[in-house]
């Protein structure tokens, strides 16, 4: 897919009520941009799953997050970059849950890191201010590696009038 090009939405009728329509990518992207909390799923070296909440910023058609180099998620991603990020509305009868599949790739270029840092501060406030040093974030908690996940596949689960949409990139 080329930058700025939108993926095609495919409705899965097996998990959708009669008459449901696929969710527009523009709505899903807006939810990915505005969500406050995301859940990252990675795989431990022994194959067991690891899930943790984190903050994320949508920038340049990817979700970006940071983590300390010794944290479990960073160690998992060093061995296997494939991951899933989820976000949504924690209610059964309303909202849109999103599942983003892709590979978490390190972001180390100064210009890109400064843009992600500015995105964190704009979205989450001044307490999430990061300096950029030596290919990573530097903040009160120490050094933080930055990763970007460009979606390969995204699933959208609409609740209320239930539907499942898949977008492939």
From TrEMBL:
SUPFAM superfamilies xref list: FMN-binding split barrel (SSF50475)
Positions of the Pyridoxamine 5'-phosphate oxidase N-terminal domain: 27-128
Alphabetized UniProt keyword annotations: Oxidoreductase
Gene3D superfamilies attached to this UniProt entry: Electron Transport, Fmn-binding Protein, Chain A (2.30.110.10)
Domain of life, per lineage: Bacteria
Source lineage: Bacteria, Bacillati, Actinomycetota, Actinomycetes, Kitasatosporales
Pfam family membership, one: PNPOx_N
Name used for this protein in its record: Pyridoxamine 5'-phosphate oxidase family protein
């Amino acid at each position: 897919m080329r930058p700025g090009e939108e993926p095609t939405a495919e409705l899965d009728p097996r998990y959708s009520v009669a008459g449901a329509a696929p969710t527009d990518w523009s709505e899903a992207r807006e939810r990915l941009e505005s969500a406050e909390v995301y859940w990252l799923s990675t795989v431990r070296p022994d194959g067991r799953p690891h899930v943790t909440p984190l903050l994320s910023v949508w920038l340049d058609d990817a979700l970006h997050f940071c983590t300390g180099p010794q944290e479990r998620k960073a160690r998992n991603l060093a061995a296997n970059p494939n991951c899933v990020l989820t976000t949504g509305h924690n209610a059964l009868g309303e909202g849109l849950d999103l599942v983003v599949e892709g590979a978490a790739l390190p972001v180390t270029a100064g210009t890109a890191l400064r843009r992600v840092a500015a995105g964190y501060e704009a979205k989450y406030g001044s307490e999430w201010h990061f300096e950029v040093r030596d290919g990573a974030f530097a903040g009160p908690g120490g050094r933080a590696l930055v990763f970007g996940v460009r979606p390969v596949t995204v699933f959208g689960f609409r609740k209320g009038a239930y539907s499942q949409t898949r977008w492939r990139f």
